[in-house]
Amino acid sequence: MLPILYKCNFFTIYTYGVFVAIAFIVSTVLLSKEAKRTGQNEDVIYNLCVLLLISGIVSARLFYIFLNWDYFASDLTEIFKINHGGLVWFGGLIGAAISALIFMRYKKLSVVSTIDLFIPYVALGQAIGRLGCFFNGCCYGREAQWGIYFPVHGRTLVPSQLFDSLTLLLIFLALRFMRKRAKGGQVFSMYLILASVQRFMSEFIRGDERPFYFHLSIFQWISAGLFIVGIFCYLFVSWKKRSV
Predict the structure, then answer these.
(1) Mean pLDDT in the chain?
(2) What CA–CA distance (Å, rounded) separates 120 from 134?
(3) Of the ranges 1-10, 88-97, 216-225, which is most confident?
(4) Does pTM top 0.70 for this prediction?
(5) Residue 37: pLDDT band by 50, 70, 90 thresholds?
């Protein structure tokens, strides 16, 4: 693996951070082009992207710290060492969603259409970001003879990060294709459905520690909840669309 891309006496460039930056730049550029094509204000969309990035990372980190407080309590400086890994997608989704809703209300944007515009590129950003996890060695999979050797762990592990990256890329492509025909919240609903299924399944090959309840990880329980919400939302917006 390659957790450090470049290091000198003055600064260190972490591969994880580079991929987060790439994810943001690629997603923002493509999203801005899509916004321009659909007649939306590019500057407002860009500002919302920056807000989502900051709020998403902060809330994803806080959620991870909450779930692993025993580890951080012994060394509080680890809270700020994000290069060691430790971002929870669910926490980032919740924090980013709350900040986005506040921003959209303030700017008087259409919440439903704006979310449908954004959400495919959230999946794309996740797909690129998972490559950073692979090089960093975090979010690793179970031990397996057919896996990839991770020097940071000294074991041959399932490359769960690559599985996540590929499946999230497929979700992005599916949502982009769907957006050409879907309206009124269907794209966002489908994201919840597909992303929750993807995370639920990926948990079976994950090897890092996480809380378990009734033989399912906490992330699988959250995924199940989001899946139900996604199904309900999709059926509701589909019914509403037909009844108009």
Answers:
(1) 89
(2) 22
(3) 216-225
(4) yes
(5) confident
